[in-house]
TrEMBL record:
GO terms (BP aspect): transmembrane transport
Main function: Part of the ABC transporter complex UgpBAEC involved in sn-glycerol-3-phosphate (G3P) import. Probably responsible for the translocation of the substrate across the membrane.
Originating organism: Devosia litorisediminis
Residue intervals of the ABC transmembrane type-1 domain: 71-260
Alphabetical list of Gene3D superfamilies matching this protein: MetI-like (1.10.3720.10)
Protein name: sn-glycerol-3-phosphate transport system permease protein UgpE
């Protein structure tokens, strides 16, 4: 009884989290196992027959293997965006933390504004059209970098504050140039926060629905989230195929999160612990 009294809030939190996260996933899995007729009932019941393999084959081959094209596009988008995001955010965070100028306050205000102000869709589309980047994958890569850069900068800056300046000065005395100081001395020390940033941003960008919908029209440019439209229409929805599609595009981010869960927590708290 003493154990329950002491940890009742923790136990309740775990149970609520399990219901919130596991029940929807179980519903997705059960619906993906069903045939079309039973899946259309949208009830939480065990399938009368298992149709998972048939559903997967139909989902993958629909619209000339559109799901495979979408996985390729999403992979290119995620890897390119996260790679550039890590480099740019780490460099900006390093400069902001190490070099104090009269412009720092304005720069920090703009970074916070990037976190708080919602994106303007129509002006962004007009800008992309003017630059010839609308409906182009590399145009969306720049959009993803711009939208996620403020959070990444704040993350790196907080971590860099825990790294002694003596390391920079020692490298400079040894003849290292500024780029050498950053890439050969500072960047390797940023590994914990870099892993955190990579995992968080990868899952976010891979699962992004609104940005590809607005800025990347066209079936040849489809990302995994946009393939959900393949099985929905105004008058009919194939729920067994829809939930099979959801299951397939949920598995990669879920695996990444499960494998790197400890690194995410360690990276998010490293700056606070060291500070």
């Amino acid at each position: 009884m003493s154990f329950l009294r002491r940890y009742w809030l923790t136990i309740v939190s775990i149970l609520v989290s399990a219901v919130v996260f596991l029940v929807p996933f179980a519903f997705i899995l059960l619906t993906a196992l069903k045939g079309k007729q039973q899946a259309n009932l949208l009830d939480f019941s065990w399938p009368q027959s298992i149709y998972l393999w048939e559903n997967i084959v139909e989902v993958v081959t629909t619209r000339n293997w559109m799901l495979l094209t979408a996985f390729i596009n999403s992979t290119i988008l995620t890897v390119s965006s996260v790679t550039l995001l890590v480099i740019f955010a780490a460099m900006v965070g390093f400069v902001l933390q190490r070099r104090k100028t009269r412009w720092n306050g304005m720069i920090e205000f703009l970074i916070l504004a990037g976190l708080m102000i919602p994106p303007a869709i129509v002006p962004t589309i007009v800008l992309l059209q003017g630059l010839g980047l609308f409906a182009k994958l590399h145009g969306l890569i720049l959009i993803e970098i711009a939208y996620h850069l403020p959070f990444s900068i704040l993350l790196y800056r907080a971590f860099i504050a825990t790294i002694p300046r003596d390391l920079d000065e020692a490298a400079i005395i040894d003849g290292a140039r500024p780029m050498d100081v950053f890439f050969r001395v500072i960047m390797p020390l940023l590994w914990p926060v870099t892993v955190t940033n990579i995992v968080v941003q990868s899952v976010t960008i891979f699962n992004d629905f609104t940005n590809p919908l607005y800025y990347l029209p066209g079936n040849q440019n489809a990302t995994v989230q946009l393939t959900l439209y393949n099985f929905q229409s105004q008058f009919n929805t194939s729920y067994n195929l829809l939930f099979t599609n959801i299951l397939l595009i949920t598995i990669p981010p879920l695996i990444v999160f499960l494998f790197f869960n400890r690194q995410i927590v360690a990276g998010m708290t490293a700056g606070a612990v060291k500070g």
